[in-house]
């Protein structure tokens, strides 16, 4: 599985995003993570500036970064700043953490497609942030909705594909 690529995204509480992405075609693994913040070794109780994010490991022969982002924009509200559902704060921001200029370009293109589609009532507030490092969330948060099927989520598939 050395040919797998990784995408780093944040769109609100990481539990719901992980639960939906885990079954997507081409997705081989998911891990809930903290990224983009101020401290080393963040925890659920101490992650200033970090987003609750998701590391998506995918096979580029089965899916693409563009299709990962297409689904990302369908399952969370990218138009709200620092908020998803009842969750409020920068931890719940909509963000794409790009690893290189090609990912940044694709992310900008997808944001433009989403905005032009008119499916959301406002333009995306999704930030583009350079990926630096990610820290795995605590074990209790990994696969949370598998372990707790009635647990909280504000994520759902809202639209068909943007592309």
UniProtKB/TrEMBL annotation:
Please give the Gene Ontology molecular function terms for this protein.
Answer: peptide-methionine (S)-S-oxide reductase activity
Q: Where is the Peptide methionine sulphoxide reductase MsrA domain?
A: 6-154
Q: Which residues form the active site?
A: 13
Keyword terms: Oxidoreductase
Q: Which InterPro entries match?
A: Met_Sox_Rdtase_MsrA_dom (IPR002569), Met_Sox_Rdtase_MsrA_sf (IPR036509)
Specify the superkingdom: Bacteria
Q: Look at the named UniProt entry and state the broad enzyme category this protein falls under.
A: oxidoreductase
* SUPFAM superfamilies in alphabetical order: Peptide methionine sulfoxide reductase
**Pfam families reported for this sequence:** PMSR
* Enzyme Commission no: 1.8.4.11
What does the record give as the reaction this protein catalyses?
L-methionyl-[protein] + [thioredoxin]-disulfide + H2O = L-methionyl-(S)-S-oxide-[protein] + [thioredoxin]-dithiol; [thioredoxin]-disulfide + L-methionine + H2O = L-methionine (S)-S-oxide + [thioredoxin]-dithiol
> What does it do?
Has an important function as a repair enzyme for proteins that have been inactivated by oxidation. Catalyzes the reversible oxidation-reduction of methionine sulfoxide in proteins to methionine.
Tell me the protein family, please.
Answer: Belongs to the MsrA Met sulfoxide reductase family.
Q: What is this protein called?
A: Peptide methionine sulfoxide reductase MsrA
Q: Where does this protein come from, organism-wise?
A: Neolewinella antarctica
**Its gene?**
msrA
